[in-house]
Design goal:
231 residues; alpha/beta; Rossmann fold; two-stranded antiparallel ribbon; 6 helices; 10 strands; binds 5-O-phosphono-beta-D-ribofuranosylamine
Length: 231
């Protein structure tokens, strides 16, 4: 039996949950961040999981929990604008208060980003602004940094450059390769993404009109930097 927080949108009827915000999650592949979000007992409703690839393994995590899924296959669209328009329509159909990119591998156009400004989050596996874009773990190893990590940020039209919400740091070990480093970072991704989404759903996190992150209740319950001693 799934919990109320993850009931599909068709079951929206109870007066008690009319205040709950609605989350739509976009994925492209494995879906481990999606799974962390699904299992986090968030104070909101995950109304849909949308993938740009029909073969994304993460779709099964949503289906197993009765969450609606949709595939907007980017290969069926001749332009990014047409893909973005179809994606916008699907996201709007699920009444998203918050759109969460969880390993979504398409670059979204400016129109999409502007439409969901202030309610569009992404996670990137590096301590931004270091190592944006592709292969951040390889970039970190090549640079020889001793500290790496992950970042949740609001999405803006500049790739991986939006206002930072929360970061978690991990050490880089001398014998690390991309796989071992990615695995260490992923553990922290699964920690900070549900945290950031929870803040948003609790109305503690917002983007101000001048593009600053406002996080209320700073201190232990709203700590935007995690540097675990045992990572
Ligand atoms: C994660 O490392 C995420 O930070 C990056 O893509 C990866 C997706 O992994 N954007 P998963 O699909 O959530 O397992």
């Amino acid at each position: 039996m799934m919990s109320d927080a993850f009931s599909p949108v068709s079951s929206r009827s109870g007066a008690a949950d009319t205040q709950m915000k609605t989350v739509v999650i976009l994925i492209s592949g494995r879906g481990s961040n999606l799974l962390a979000l699904l299992e986090a007992k968030l104070p909101g409703r995950i109304s849909a999981v949308i993938s740009d690839r029909g073969e994304a393994q993460g779709l099964a995590f949503a289906q197993a929990r009765g969450v609606a899924t949709a595939v907007i296959d980017h290969r069926r669209y001749t332009s990014r604008e047409a893909f973005d328009a179809a994606l916008t329509e699907e996201v709007e159909a699920h009444r998203a208060d918050l759109v969460v990119l969880a390993g979504f591998m398409r670059i979204l156009g400016d129109d999409f980003v502007r439409r969901f400004a202030g309610r569009l989050l992404n996670i990137h596996p590096s301590l931004l602004p270091m190592f944006p874009g592709l292969k951040p773990h390889a970039q970190a190893l090549a640079a020889g940094v001793k500290i790496h990590g992950c970042t949740v940020h609001f999405v803006t039209p500049s790739l991986d450059a939006g206002p930072i919400v929360v970061q978690a740091a991990v050490p880089v070990h001398g014998d690390d390769d991309q796989k071992s480093l990615a695995a260490r970072v992923l553990v922290q991704e699964h920690r900070i993404y549900p945290q950031a989404v929870r803040w948003f759903l609790e109305d503690r996190l917002r983007l101000s009109p001048d593009g600053r992150v406002v996080l209320q209740g700073e201190g232990p319950p709203a700590q935007p930097l995690i540097a675990p001693a045992s990572a």
